[in-house]
Amino acid sequence: MNLKITGLNFDVTDAIHERVSKKLERIVRHSDDVINVSITLIVEKLEHKATAQVHLAGKDLHVETVEKDMYAAIDVLADKLDRAILQHKEKSRSVH
After folding, report:
1. Which of 15, 66, 85, 89 is the most exposed place for a label (fewest CB within 10 A)?
2. Residues of the chain with pLDDT under 70
3. pTM to 2 decimal places
4. Can you list the domains of the chain with their CATH numbers?
């Protein structure tokens, strides 16, 4: 899995990079089809936005979240991404 983390309007620290990669370990555990993950972290005034583009074998997923704290945004993003990948996995199983 290739992981790319980009920060807009702020610098991505080692702590944030480590937090994102730790949260994404759970996603890789659920699906072996993850090819590429691109995370964009944005700070706009009082809002902290986290978006993720996940390229799976056969599907691309886009998840976005807005919170008041960057760490909270990363946590919610990981939860949403986990649910989206599990839904994709269940759909692909039911088709086969």
Report:
1. 15
2. 95-96
3. 0.88
4. 2-95 (3.30.160.100)
